[in-house]
Amino acid sequence: MTTPVPASDRPALRFATGTTVKDFAAYTEWLRVAEDCGYAMLTTGDSQSLWADPYVALTFAAQHTTVPRLGVTVSNPMTRHPAVAASASSALQHISGDRFVLGISSGDSALRNIGLRPARVAETEEYVTAVRDLTAGRAARWQGADLELRWPPRRTPVWVAAEGPRTLRMAGRVADGVVLSNSLTREAYARNLGHIAEGAAEAGRDVADLEVWCMANVVPAATEQDGIDQVRSVLAGTANHVFRFGTEGKGLPDALRPAVEELKRRYDSAHHASPETAAHNAALVDELGLTGFLAAHSTVAGPLGHCVERLHEIAEAGVRNLVVAQFVPEPLAFMRTFADRIAPHFR
């Protein structure tokens, strides 16, 4: 058993965790355990073809929890009009006691699975601004139309999931927070935070006023490689998402660019975020020589002591908030182990 390091000696971390909902009876127990384990926020995604609607799921979560924040990580501008998203978000704020946050990105599996294109950066910026305005009780504009909620809305923080320089700067200009993927190295986090800061400065804002959360696969296992092997399909999905619009400004070595382009060409979005059915996607990262690079930027794996040290390295690089993914065989046992054996080192 590892011994917690005093909080005064090393930086603290705040942890969220999430799941995708397919069985509400199982979700009831998941929520109970997650709240008991003390996670700061509980999340789910928005991909209608793959799992349950996030607003329904988080309304259910609001009724079965009392303390943690509840977040969609993330939705998109293409499947929900901003007035619809703002109204649903306001309703969730009323029900949850203002615990809800809405994350937005350009859109990935939700769109690929129904044949829609992703939103452009300018569209996403306009959408985020409209949702923020509407939930704050202000009039908004969307694609030339004037919008207004004529019932009492409730202010909702709107975050942006961003990877490339343009989207990161946009998030700095208009979002309340940012969700980062592939940012668990010192270099990647500093680069991405710098772009966010540039955007914040353009709007007369301070980057310190934005919440920045990093996605992380945490996989306790006998060895680091054993843990990485369990999430190879997730590594493929992250790479497909992060690099889908291009590789410039994202820290990808030139030697790996052809491999990433091949991965994007062959990735199967029908099995996105589903390790149990995604053998094809899992095989791609090994075949294309991408496993090591992708794991270093997104994954903490191995024996518990090694996971703790790796998380300390991430905290010392400046990261303060982690959304811990649950691509593990037994999520309830994982949450309890994480809460008992890992989280105490970072308080």
From TrEMBL:
<keyword id="KW-0560">Oxidoreductase</keyword>
<feature type="domain" description="Luciferase-like">
    <location>
        <begin position="18"/>
        <end position="320"/>
    </location>
</feature>
<dbReference type="Pfam" id="PF00296">
    <property type="entry name" value="Bac_luciferase"/>
</dbReference>
<dbReference type="InterPro" id="IPR036661">
    <property type="entry name" value="Luciferase-like_sf"/>
</dbReference>
<dbReference type="GO" id="GO:0016705">
    <property type="term" value="F:oxidoreductase activity, acting on paired donors, with incorporation or reduction of molecular oxygen"/>
</dbReference>
<dbReference type="InterPro" id="IPR050564">
    <property type="entry name" value="F420-G6PD/mer"/>
</dbReference>
<protein>
    <submittedName>
        <fullName>LLM class flavin-dependent oxidoreductase</fullName>
    </submittedName>
</protein>
<dbReference type="InterPro" id="IPR011251">
    <property type="entry name" value="Luciferase-like_dom"/>
</dbReference>
